[in-house]
Amino acid sequence: MTTAYISHNDCALHDMGASHPESPQRLQAISARLSDSGLLQRLDCLTPAPIQREQLALAHPEPYIRELEALQPRRGHSYADPDTALNPHSLHAARLAAGAVLLGTERILGGSCQNAFCAVRPPGHHAEQVSAMGFCLFNNVALGVEWALQHSDIERVAVLDFDVHHGNGTVDIFKDRPEVLVCSSFQYPFYPFRYQDIQRSHIVHTPLPAGTVSSAFRQAIERDWLPALARHRPDMIFISAGFDAHRADPLGQLQLEDEDFHWITGLIGEAANRYAGARLLSVLEGGYDLPALGRCAEAHVKALLEAR
Ligand SMILES: [Zn+2]
């Protein structure tokens, strides 16, 4: 059984401008670090096809997809929100990003790999059913969850989101779907200021004050996520893997270290082994300090390899 690495060169064609932190260089930083460390050579490298339109409709209504298509410019940039630009290649990249998650889901459910990391952009966890926001167009993880739930062996799924920002889009999509546990740790108060106080037994919030360090982060995750996972007993686990809670990140003010991303991935891997037949799919979200992003992705992938 292998760990898959799913990425596509065309994800770099989506470019929101030279000063935008969600840059094509992010994927280069990850692949260069994985290659230099020798980890890439131990992974099963896969190339996705774009998600199909009817598959996108699993999480986003047709009018929303048409709205984004109409927004995509022939040249230059257009804006879905003040932070979220489209260039002529953005929807192609977004379809590949979502397609990567479907491919990973298929491979894991088919048993040809045990777990996988999708190094893709644009990210997805802020994309609500009918709103692009926060650098996100389609909710990649939510699409994978919906795809997994079509599979007869999968009745309950968990999404674990350790990005520094709250996964409002994932909460929006699954807020009335008790078969999907969503646990999100996030700096609070902080962007996106949406859905952070919704009360549902299958939605677990772990708000963290600015300045939170490793030990407090780990305690909060163990306190909130482990009992929720034990109650939910998911058949498959998805990770919204944002690395912007790292102390070096320019957007967030949490103070996590490289090793925290190895730690939390190991903890999630143990939960996947205990409840989910080791079925675990991780998808890149944020992470904007390029050297830290590369190191944290290395720590994350190393723990995925060790979880098998
Ligand atoms: Zn983020």
From TrEMBL:
SUPFAM superfamilies the record matches: Arginase/deacetylase
Task: Report domain Histone deacetylase positions.
Answer: 20-304
| InterPro entries attached to this UniProt entry | HDACs, His_deacetylse_dom, His_deacetylse_dom_sf, Ureohydrolase_dom_sf
Q: Which family does it belong to?
A: Belongs to the histone deacetylase family.
What's the protein name? Answer: Histone deacetylase family protein
Species the sequence originates in: Marinobacterium rhizophilum
